[in-house]
């Protein structure tokens, strides 16, 4: 179960809209021109800068975000969102080449630096077996982030990245 409230103005002011499920286009659904603040009341959510779950992604857990800088946004552009489903266990396989070729690593826990642990920082394919995960472009959970739900990702473009660079990964849990 999830709940998020969007506000048109900073500081939780102006027109507001509350949702409890995924939304392909916030502007079509609520007719908000811009979203400048929000409250995550229940669950973990991923916000997208473009409709149809495209563009930069921002993962948010329960809390108050009085302006887009609080969710580390580069702008106030939020056009779609998804609730991240709760999962009890997590398992992901990472491959150094496209189509599940090359060296494979399996994770059930977070990894703050793929470079330190495996001496490389590019991944070309992966398979999420259980739970949801976040890949970060840089070590220590920094940089561009990508939400991965269970499924197959034969190439880095399948998870929305423009390069194969991955520095760290984290499980999405209730406390994200």
UniProtKB/TrEMBL annotation:
The protein, known as: Gamma-crystallin D-like
Keywords: Eye lens protein, Repeat
Record keyword rRNA-binding present: no
Protein family (similarity comment): Belongs to the beta/gamma-crystallin family.
PROSITE patterns per record: CRYSTALLIN_BETA_GAMMA
GO process annotations (BP): lens development in camera-type eye; visual perception
Cross-referenced InterPro entries: Beta/Gamma-Crystallin (IPR050252), Beta/gamma_crystallin (IPR001064), G_crystallin-like (IPR011024)
Residue span, Beta/gamma crystallin 'Greek key' domain: 2-42, 43-85, 90-130, 131-173
GO MF annotation, one: structural constituent of eye lens
Keyword Coiled coil among record annotations: no
Domain of life: Eukaryota
SUPFAM superfamilies in UniProt: gamma-Crystallin-like
Protein purpose: Crystallins are the dominant structural components of the vertebrate eye lens.
This protein's encoding gene: LOC102747176
């Amino acid at each position: 179960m999830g709940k998020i409230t969007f506000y048109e103005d900073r500081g939780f002011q102006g027109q507001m809209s509350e949702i409890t499920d995924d939304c392909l286009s916030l502007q079509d659904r609520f007719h908000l021109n811009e979203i400048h603040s929000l409250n995550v009341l229940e669950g973990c959510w991923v916000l997208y800068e473009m409709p149809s779950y495209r563009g930069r992604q921002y993962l948010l857990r329960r809390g108050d975000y009085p302006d887009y800088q609080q969710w580390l946004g580069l702008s106030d552009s939020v056009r779609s969102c998804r609730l991240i489903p709760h999962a009890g266990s997590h398992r992901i396989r990472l491959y150094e080449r496209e189509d599940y070729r090359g060296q494979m690593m399996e994770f059930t826990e977070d990894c703050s630096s793929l470079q330190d642990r495996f001496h490389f920082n590019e991944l070309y394919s992966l398979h999420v077996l259980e739970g949801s995960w976040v890949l970060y472009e840089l070590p220590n959970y920094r940089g561009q982030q990508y939400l991965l739900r269970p499924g197959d990702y034969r190439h880095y473009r399948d998870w929305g990245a423009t390069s194969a660079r991955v520095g760290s990964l984290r499980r999405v849990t209730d406390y994200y």
